[in-house]
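TA notes, week 10

Several of you asked for a full example with nothing omitted. So below is the full record: structure tokens for the whole chain, then the designed sequence directly under it. When grading your own attempts, check the secondary structure regions first.
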């Protein structure tokens, strides 16, 4: 991997790994999950993204974090993983029927962050992200809890997710330069976060699109990750892929990287082959003609 992006003062590979598919329903067995993380690391990925709520409906909070911790330990220990940044999130949960809840109460976020830190086995969480605004809690109060976690050294850097422009500005006001990232849905199929992307570029915040392969692959929120039939609307990605001799998923990630120097995609993977293919997008530079074709909707 030859291209990098910044998360605050931390340089990471331009493509991260979204670990959600490894720990929710439809997840692979432990051996394949660990092999997937290791394949990503071998390919130069240095950002792993998970959350305390990434577990099956009948599971326990933090299963995804524990899996990431086991994968890093099995990779060879600290000497081989010093440059890896683990990002996790707090403020969401799962229901027994597979749904998702939101809890942005400060007391919950403080407990959740401490529990995440223990599961990851670190002195301070590298990047802790407020998973989603809670409509029952003033957003400033939730952000205040994140600021307290920063001040206490429980977390090193902060991010926010599923937010609008006003919420980004409020978070910057409360957290200052320790706010380093925004994680919103953005993909070939879902481009509604253009305003948030532009603001992140203006403020120097990393923009981490979740479900970045929408339109090319299914989201993990739709069930187990899997390829879908090519949608004619996204035929350009397939045409460019055929001409380049690469996968349309790799083209989609390269396209995302071209949107802004602050974009840092975190595609999910549940197979080593997929993790390696995604990581290779960091070396795929699309030309002006290809980008024009991909921007047509």
């Amino acid at each position: 991997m030859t291209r990098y992006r910044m998360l605050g003062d931390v340089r990471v590979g331009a493509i991260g790994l979204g670990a959600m598919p490894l720990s929710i329903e439809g997840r692979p067995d432990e051996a394949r999950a660990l092999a997937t993380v290791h394949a990503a690391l071998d390919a130069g990925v240095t950002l792993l993204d998970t959350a305390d709520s990434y577990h099956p409906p009948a599971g326990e909070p933090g299963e995804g974090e524990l899996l990431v911790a086991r994968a890093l330990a099995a990779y060879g220990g600290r000497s081989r993983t010093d440059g890896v940044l683990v990002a996790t999130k707090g403020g969401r949960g799962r229901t027994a029927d597979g749904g998702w809840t939101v809890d942005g109460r400060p007391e919950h976020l403080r407990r959740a962050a401490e529990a995440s830190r223990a599961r990851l086995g670190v002195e301070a969480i590298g990047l802790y992200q407020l998973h989603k605004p809670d409509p029952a809690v003033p957003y400033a109060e939730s952000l205040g809890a994140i600021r307290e976690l920063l001040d206490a050294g429980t977390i090193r850097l902060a991010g926010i997710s599923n937010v609008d422009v006003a919420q980004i500005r409020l978070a910057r006001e409360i957290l200052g330069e320790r706010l380093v990232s925004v994680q919103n849905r953005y993909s070939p199929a879902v481009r509604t976060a253009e305003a948030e992307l532009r603001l992140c570029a203006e403020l120097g915040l990393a923009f981490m699109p979740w479900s970045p392969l929408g339109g090319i692959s299914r989201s993990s929120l739709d069930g187990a990750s899997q390829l879908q039939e090519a949608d004619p609307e996204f035929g350009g990605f397939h045409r460019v892929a055929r001409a380049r001799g690469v996968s349309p998923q790799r083209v989609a990630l390269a396209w995302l990287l071209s949107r802004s120097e602050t974009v840092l995609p975190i595609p999910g993977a549940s197979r080593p082959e997929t993790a390696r293919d995604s990581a290779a997008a960091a070396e795929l530079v699309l030309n002006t003609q290809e980008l024009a074709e991909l921007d047509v909707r």
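Residues 222-229 have pLDDT under 50 and may be disordered. Use that as a sanity check on your answer.
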